[in-house]
Specification:
CATH superfamily of the largest domain: P-loop containing nucleotide triphosphate hydrolases
Strand content: 5-15%
Number of domains: 4
CATH class of the largest domain: Alpha Beta
Low-confidence stretches: 87-122
Radius of gyration: 26 Å
CATH architecture of the largest domain: 3-Layer(aba) Sandwich
Strand order of the largest sheet: 3-5-6-7-4-8
Number of helices: 20
Helix content: 40-55%
Bound molecules: adenosine-5'-triphosphate, magnesium ion
Shape: globular
Distance between the termini: 69 Å
Largest sheet: 6 strands, parallel
Length: 457
Amino acid sequence: MDITEVLKLADELVFTQTGNHLDYLQEAILQGTLEGETYAKIAEETYASEGHVRDVGSELWKLLSKGLGKEVSKANFKAILEKANFYNYSSAIGRDYVTVNNVHLCSEARRSPPHPPQPQATQTQLHLDLSNAPEIFNFYGRTEELATLDRAIVGDRCRLVALLGFGGMGKTTLALRLVEQVKNQFEYVIYRSLRFYSDLGAIAANLLQIFSPDTEIPDRLETQLSQLLTHLRQSRCLIILDDLQIPFNSGKLAGGNGAIYEEYRLFFKTIAEVTHQSCIVAIADEKPLAITTLEKQNYPVRSLVLQGLGDAAKSILQDQNLSDSETWDSLINLYHGNPLWLEITATSIRELCGGRVGDFLTYKTPVLWEPLQAQLDQKFQRLTLPEKKAIAQLSTATEPVILMHLLQLTQLSAAEFFKVMQSLDRRLFVEIQEREGVTQFFLNPVLREYAKSWGLD
Ligand SMILES: Nc1ncnc2c1ncn2[C@@H]1O[C@H](COP(=O)(O)OP(=O)(O)OP(=O)(O)O)[C@@H](O)[C@H]1O
Ligand SMILES: [Mg+2]
């Protein structure tokens, strides 16, 4: 008996009655029960109170009893499945039966389906479309991040997950590695980069074409999105929308402005609020306000901000056959663990310093190689003048600067200063830390170097 199949069956029975999918705790209760665990043990594993787990369990057994048309409890759940020799069922939402040992068990509410059910339960086929995706050659580390995303998408069935991080931090690479890990949980897995689409309508039309190639695409965005939602409800889809920052306006504070942003804001709101069984992973190099707001409102929405690659970045240096491994930690810190920056630097150290990291580090400051400079030119262009002023002030400090001190240095009004710092935080330009009840800001060495060379007073 396969636990995934059991969870799918239970999910369908619960969904039919409540319109909601199994949540993380309900799944843990089913899994724990099949593994012979007590409520106390399940509570311990899920960090919930035993009383809460019992209450959720009791509700769940009621729903399953109703769905299967027989009394189900924690004590007999496993025995019922074994007796029925459960092996298959129709997984498509909207069908009116599940097949247990070739016997169709109708849910209570659907005892009389309008059309006779198909006799064969079909195995769902994976539609994998990564046509916009770059090829991934190496993948190092990120074990914790993968586990976090897996938990959000598969375990907690989040409808919207934001994967964020400064340019080059490895968002696209991680998302594509994640696809390998979770693709079997989905009927459709689609990757699209927004750099290839003019607006949300173009993306929606492209997705509709994949879901129903023979159907005419409606003109109105509202109709397109409503049809898209129907597909997200009918099939379990993982849709990765990369480079989300591209459609948003530049030259204004981060967070969102303009009509295009408003379209996306409403789209994400709908994805988070409306019941469906799919997940959209939105990738951006800024924190999109539209998503972070939804996360705070307790919708099934998560965000993960990628930090440096840490120790795993050593494999990137190893790939370039660099030497002086005892100095590699300093090099990784200097380039903030950013895999793209480290790749560029490692290649240059190999070419210019014979691969000796120690020689390169005698210069102490990070060198902004041409491709890195080009990336930063593009990112700094997006900043507003007050943001640039704040960055220029921060760049003079090698230690974190406390909030009050930075406020004085920037000579902005307090109201404007707070908005500017919030925007820089959303753009992932500044690091903010709380130390002994004091807020401190600092720039990583690469951004500091860029801002210094920029000479803004
Ligand atoms: N975990 C990793 N292991 C090995 N290489 C990595 C890893 N993550 C990223 N890289 C390398 O770093 C470079 C940048 O990665 P990627 O394109 O995924 O970053 P990104 O955050 O999507 O950047 P952007 O914001 O510009 O789209 C790529 O060349 C990729 O191969
Ligand atoms: Mg990317």
